[in-house]
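#data-curation
PF: Archiving a pair of folding outputs for the training set. Convention for this channel: one message per protein, sequence first, structure tokens after, nothing in between. First:
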Amino acid sequence: MDEKYLMTEELEARIAMLEGEVARLRAREAITATFNQYLYSMDTAFSDGILDAYAEDAVLDVLNFPPDGVDMHFEGREAMRKLYDPYGARESLISGGHTSSNIAIAVSDDALTASLTSYFTTTGNRGVQGGRYEGTLRLDPDGKWRWVTLAIISAWGFRPNDSSLVSDAVAIERSAFGGRPATAD
């Protein structure tokens, strides 16, 4: 066999491998952007931003929801609206927030689906809570990554002993990005 042909075949295989790797890395970045959109939208009362992070047919399980430890199950973005609309009804303030850590994202070889796990802590004037996010995402036809399944597992929480106010919430207008995550556009 011609050596030139072998080199071409090897180069094409390497290029295909690199293209796959770039697609998976781009997917990870886009998934992180969706996760951040979800978290920032929760923290600044943008219910439309929260719901846009879910696929139309997504399934959401909220386990041990405080303060009563209720489990909730939602099928479809519209069904989730009753959980998230109260966030949009609040005044848009930066007043506490979600902190996520130990974020693990596993993107499929074809870069069309992924799984994500993360610990979370929420802080606010009513207390501190923590748990895990566990879910799957897919690349929707419009080019945006969205949750297909998500389990929000509240694992612990407590109310502060001293509830004296240290500082007031900040209006989102005072935020350079309007309370939204940084974007390239």
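PF: Second:
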Amino acid sequence: MPASLPTTAKPLDHLALAGEPDAPALVLRDRTLTHKDLRESVGRLAAWLQGQVPERGARVASWATKGELTCLLPLAAARAGLVHVPINPLLKRAQAAHILGDSGTRLLIGTAARLATLEAGDVPPDCLTWSEAEALAAYSAATVLGPSCADPGELAAILYTSGSTGKPKGVMLSHANLWLGAESVASYLDLGGGDVTLAVLPLSFDYGQNQLLSTWRAGGCVVPLDYLTPRDVLKAVGRHGVTTLAAVPPLWVQLTELDWPPETAARLQRLTNSGGALTIDLVRRLRGLFPGARLFPMYGLTEAFRSTYLDPALVDSHPTSMGQAIPHAEILVMADDGGIAADGEEGELVHCGPLVAQGYWQDPERTAERFKPAPLQSCYGGIAVWSGDRVRRDADGLLYFVGRRDAMIKTAGNRVSPQEIEEAALATGLVAEAVALGVPDERLGQAVHLVVRAVPGCPEAETELPRKLLQELPNFMQPKVIHWRSAMPISPNGKIDRTGLYAELAA
């Protein structure tokens, strides 16, 4: 069990103070920063930012791949009294322009090639623009700004969702949200000063940014990596002695298809997953490939950072469980009648406590839809995130995902969980990835469409999959159409792009 945690959050930039001065903190392409270097660099960048944008609470955006600036900005902006807005480097001009305009960005730092794609009107008129190279050279000459005395309740970052429904929403996160999230994860992962985290996820993603924050909270070292192929990840694990790797299911699938040298696989001590559930087959493959690593399946919401994790000791016996609440989180399963759902009864997952974000930036209407008063049964009270996700809790207190309320397929009068169809397809051993979608149908209301990628070297998959699904699923859950893909489309956050698939099939 994780150690008990202090309940007092600190200003976010104080995370730079945690490690031993001479211990490595950040491995860059040309050099390694110690924790002493990290403190000085955060202070210099904060001083430079404050000189550029003296208005407290102004937004500072970054649009660049992983590197010195993108790794330091979360702490440096916080120290300068500014609000960091990381833009995923995979986003295109129009998406970046929306985020810049919506957030009212006052300073944009980006790679020259990305900045060159911007057109007239894309950048707010009062926004300064610096190339990454220019900003690196400029900030290194600044004096060091000392640790801040910010109220932990102040806004520290706005993280924009990937825009799965409509335009991206900016989730407002306070110093306390980010500090307590780092503290919580460092605790239950049991991170320490000797750990090395390979940061492969986008830093604009809450799960990705926490790779930095939780590791530095524990005094460890981060190796940022923008990989081109999964093999780049394998090589980096061996090269840097990586102990901790976080990924989303599509990447885990690709990593398990590689031939890992035993000595490289043995370096990994912990694997963490979020952004989608692990299948039973994938859990078994990960456990077989990395027998010495503890596997942490997790469930999270950008609006509340992280909600649950499954104790690695229970992964083999309960491979489909979401686990239980992480430290600093209270998770309730609310029945449709307003009471706490009974064991085994389906209900809505409601996240209460200090990890709950401050709402959506300048969007009171959508904030009111998701951020509502906590149930009376909550120990914390205040505002809670009503997730819309349907879950159930067993007699041992373990949670299981049923499906999203707005993602359930309504076909011929039946409510069908896409996850159940996907799990059935994956359980056949014929496909490596599967996505079930409800596509409008005049007769059925919605018809089940299944998009799959065959297991490599499995020529019989196309003929065998329909037959096996007929054996395993009731008639109303059978796919009307099975679409075969050589590769699944991937969203900017590394997840399978369900929205893009739906748009393609529904067109």
